[in-house]
Structure formats: structure tokens, C-alpha cells
Design a protein that fits this description.
mainly alpha; HD; rod-shaped; DNA-binding; developmental protein; activator; single chain
DNA sequence: AATAATGATTACGC
DNA sequence: GCGTAATCATTATT
């Protein structure tokens, strides 16, 4: 390091062309005779052999000398330029990558879930917001909520530490490589552009690792959410009043228990299904739909089991109907629209069971073939019962009225030919709202 | 603790 | 999108 004079000297020689090499390169062109070549080769070998003989200091000195040569920068510049024009330009085309949509999606989700957001305060707030938005977890189960939040923040913490680790590693590696390249740029032509490129490559690699981290984090969050927010896991039974209302509607529309969207909303409102029971994935109206879906299928599956219930509700609606009509000062109401619908027909796949159940419950023996034709008589019976009892009808009478019919064995609730039934069930005050709110 | 009841979800067809 | 049928997972009941 300190022998400047010697360096100067040696580098002068070196740059002029290798002492032995340059000459014969020029000489042995035409290949005059093998003699000269042989000697050249010998020369080279000799030189190679002597390289190892050189002391380390000497080698370093030479290197340094080369580095300091005044022509060197220019030469390297040219070489770099050439390199740029060849290899780099070929690869340069695919250089700029558009921001990976997948990564963007993950980022967005993490942000939305409050995992990637700002530190604690905002993060948990975001988490709460996300939870509230998605699950609508009411105030009643705050314990679960906090549990959820705790787990989420755990995930969040892991995510952040991992991310930091990766970032750090990336930086370390990048600086290392950069140093290396910079150092090498003294001995071989490396343009700053190339270094830049290398850095970007490294970053890309690391970002793909980060994406994996984000991916798995997202998965974890999703699992957490599905565990905590899945309504199925935290289902609450409807309260008594709600089921009454629903049942009432169901049995008074037995012929066609498919409430319209409006009716559903009305029912949902009436049932007062609490907010805690409604989730975003299954809003109130959907709960009603679920209920009716379940009810229909379960009723159909086993009518016998529901017979009593049917009777009960039928009787009730019958009573209410009479009350209404009595109020209207019309003793013998002509059409009894409300309950007429309930005598409707629906089709079942297992008609045998149905028939049996009807038989056993009624004590009346119906002929299978003519069951479908009994609607009118049932309506009559209903009317009769209403006018006669005027109050609680016995289960027997009711069961007669509400035993299902119209066995078509093709499954499904075919709309019955019931004449005037499509009106609302419990007429009461103002069933015709036609509000169209929302 | 078994078992029934029940609300919600899923798969599939229309 | 809605309906059915099957199924799941929880809650109520025995």
C-alpha cells in the first residue's frame, strides 16, 4: 500500500501491454513458422508460473496500479455502454412490472382487516369496524368480540414482526450486494444502472416472500373470521313471539307459504329479530327466508309431527278472523278469506306418510283418491266452526280443516286453486302498507 | 350424555 | 336469485 514508486513503475509496464504477451500477439500473425508460437506459449506459461511466485503485496500493487490508471475509467465506461446495449437492453424490456394485482388485493384486505394499518389504536379500531361491518356483532356478546380482537391483534403482531424481519434482511442483503458490486466495479465494468437493476431484482425476490407472508396472514384472518363470525356457530333461537308470528303466517298460508319480499320484511320487522341475530351475511329478511325454508321442508317431511301445531295456529287465526268479522258486524262472513288459504294444497313426495298421519289424527277416514277435492268442504267446515264455536276450536275440528291435501307426489307446494287467499294473513289493522321503504 | 329441535349454510337445479 | 334437500353446528330437552 505504501510503495507508490514501485507501483507506478509496474503499472507503466502493465498497461503498455503485457511485457511478454503483447509482442508475440502482434508477431505471430501470419503463422510463419511454429517456432515463434512455441516460444510464445512457453513465454505465457512462464508468466503464468511466475504469477504464483509474486508476493501478495506485489499482486495487490499491480491491481491498485491498474485501478488508478487514467485510462481505466474511460475504458470501463465504454465497456459498460456496450454491455448496456447488449445484454441489459435485452432484459430491460421486462423491467418495469406493474404493481401485482394479487399483492394489491392482499394489501387491501389486510388494511381493511386492520392487520396492516397503523399501530394499535387505529388498528384495533379498524378491526372493530371491520368486525362490526361484517358481523354486526351486537353489544350483547362483547366477550366474543374482544376475544376476536385479541386473536386478531396477535396475528397482527406476528405479521408485523415477520414483515420487519424480512425488511431488515432485505436491506442487509441489498447493501451487501451493493457493496460487493461496487467493489467489483473497480475490477470489472459495472455500471450504476446495473447495480440498480440488481437491487430491484433483490427487492422483487423479497417482495415475493413478503407476499407469501401476507397470503398466509390473510388466510389466518379469514379462518379467524369464519370461526368467530360464522353465525352458524353462534346461533340463537328466535324468541317465542317471533316464532309465533312466523308460524302464524306459515299456517295461515299453508297453501302457499312463500312470503313475498315485502311480506318477509314485514314479518322480520314484526318479529323484532334483534340486531344481534342479524348478520350482514344474512340480513333480517334472509332470516325469515331461512325460517320459511326450514319450515317448509320440515313440515313437508313429517306432517304428522306438525299437525298439532298446525291445528293450534289454525284455530288461532280462525278465532282472530271471527273476531274481525264480528267486529265488522257481519255474523256469517261469506268468504272467510284468511283461512281459506290455509286449506290449500301442497304436494308431497311421500304421500303415504301424509295420508296415514291425516287418518290417524283425524279419526276420519279419507279416501286417498279424493283427498284433493276436499277443499271446499273444508272451507265449509271452517266456516261452520267459526260460526258455531266462535272461540277456541277444538283440535279435532281444526285438524280437519288443516290437514294437507293435494298430494301430487312430485314434491313442491303447487299453488292451490284456492279462490281468494292471497291476501295478508292477520288482516287486523293495516296490512296494506305498500310502503316501499327501501 | 344422548337426543331432539333449530337456525344457517351448502350444493344443485331451475 | 330463489327453492329444495342435505347437512352442519349450536341450543334445548330428556
Amino acid at each position: 500500500m505504501d510503495e507508490q514508486p514501485r507501483l507506478m513503475h509496474s503499472h507503466g509496464v502493465g498497461m503498455a501491454g503485457h511485457p511478454g504477451l503483447a509482442p508475440h500477439m502482434q508477431d505471430g500473425t501470419a503463422g510463419t513458422d511454429g517456432e515463434g508460437r512455441k516460444q510464445d506459449i512457453g513465454d505465457i506459461l512462464q508468466q503464468i508460473m511466475t504469477i504464483t511466485d509474486q508476493s501478495l503485496d506485489e499482486a495487490q500493487a499491480r491491481k491498485h496500479a491498474l485501478n488508478c490508471h487514467r485510462m481505466k475509467p474511460a475504458l470501463f465506461n465504454v465497456l459498460c455502454e456496450i454491455k448496456e446495449k447488449t445484454v441489459l437492453s435485452i432484459r430491460g424490456a421486462q423491467e418495469e412490472e406493474p404493481p401485482d394485482p394479487q399483492l394489491m388485493r392482499l394489501d387491501n384486505m389486510l388494511l381493511a382487516e386492520g392487520v396492516a394499518g397503523p399501530e394499535k389504536g387505529g388498528g384495533s379500531a379498524a378491526a372493530a369496524a371491520a368486525a362490526a361491518a361484517t358481523g354486526g356483532i351486537g353489544a350483547d356478546n362483547s366477550a366474543e368480540h374482544s376475544d376476536y380482537r385479541a386473536k386478531l391483534s396477535q396475528i397482527r403482531q406476528i405479521y408485523h414482526t415477520e414483515l420487519e424481519k424480512y425488511e431488515q434482511a432485505c436491506n442487509e442483503f441489498t447493501t451487501h450486494v451493493m457493496n460487493l458490486l461496487r467493489e467489483q466495479s473497480r475490477t470489472r465494468p459495472i455500471s450504476p444502472k446495473e447495480i440498480e437493476r440488481m437491487v430491484s431484482i433483490i427487492h422483487r425476490k423479497f417482495s415475493s416472500i413478503q407476499m407469501q407472508l401476507k397470503q398466509s396472514t390473510c388466510e389466518a384472518v379469514m379462518i379467524l373470521r369464519s370461526r368467530f363470525l360464522d353465525a352458524r356457530r353462534k346461533r340463537r333461537n328466535f324468541n317465542k313471539q317471533a316464532t309465533e308470528i312466523l308460524n302464524e303466517y306459515f299456517y295461515s298460508h299453508l297453501s302457499n307459504p312463500y312470503p313475498s319480499e315485502e311480506a318477509k320484511e314485514e314479518l322480520a320487522k314484526k318479529c323484532g329479530i334483534t340486531v344481534s341475530q342479524a348478520s350482514l351475511s344474512s340480513p333480517l329478511s334472509r332470516q325469515v327466508s331461512n325460517w320459511f325454508g326450514n319450515k317448509r321442508i320440515r313440515y313437508k317431511k313429517n306432517i304428522g309431527k306438525f299437525q298439532e301445531e298446525a291445528n293450534m295456529y289454525a284455530a288461532r287465526t280462525a278465532v282472530s278472523a271471527t273476531n274481525v268479522s264480528a267486529h265488522g258486524s257481519q255474523a256469517n262472513s261469506p268468504s272467510t278469506p284468511n283461512s281459506a288459504g290455509s286449506a290449500g294444497s301442497f304436494n308431497m313426495s311421500n304421500s303415504g306418510d301424509l295420508f296415514m298421519s291425516v287418518q290417524s289424527l283425524n279419526g276420519d277416514s279419507y279416501q286417498g283418491g279424493q283427498v284433493g277435492a276436499n277443499i271446499q268442504s273444508q272451507v265449509d267446515t271452517l266456516r261452520h266452526v267459526i260460526s258455531q264455536t266462535g272461540g277456541y276450536s277444538d283440535s279435532l275440528a281444526a285438524s280437519q280443516m288443516y290437514s294437507p291435501q293435494g298430494i301430487n307426489t312430485n314434491g313442491g307446494w303447487q299453488d292451490a286453486p284456492t279462490p281468494s287467499s292471497v291476501t295478508s294473513p292477520t288482516e287486523g289493522p293495516g296490512s296494506v302498507h305498500s310502503d316501499t321503504s327501501n
